[in-house]
Amino acid sequence: MNRLILIFGFFILLISCKSTKISYESEFKISDDSVNLYAFIGKKISVLEFDPNENNTEVVTDTVFGKVFKSTPYIMDYAFKCKYRIEKNVFNELKTKTIDFVAYDHYGIAKFKNYKYVILYISLDKEDGSYYHQKYQFDPVEKTKNGTWQGLNGESIESLFNDKKNGVLSARGLFDK
């Protein structure tokens, strides 16, 4: 009988240890609707290059002489139409399972496309309803054995986000310094 109680107690101990490990995952996620930024962990579905100068002509009115003419601005960046599956919202919530956005890169390749999972930083253009990637801003991440997310060097999602928030995103005026 004592042996049965000992085995049952050991079994209960094992179950409780497993339960603790499952609930360990960090649920880091914050929101601030006053900031036009969405950060999320995404899994690449597609990243397709397109010509940003196609159909780029606009009608402009000269403010001095009132003359109307056509102007064709030239975009010197490479452009990409991107589609990602949202694995986890990090900053503000995108209420969809997938997201389409446009990314521009002066160097010819959107480097985030080289990783299976990344934290991406995008903003909404309220005029046309499209999302645009915050140029060059991403963090490669991976899922650990216990189901949590971390940077490739073991950084937490919170520290990766805060580094961007307190650095380049503040410099761009998205956050107060």
Automatic annotation (TrEMBL):
This is Lipoprotein. The lineage of its organism: Bacteria, Pseudomonadati, Bacteroidota, Flavobacteriia, Flavobacteriales.
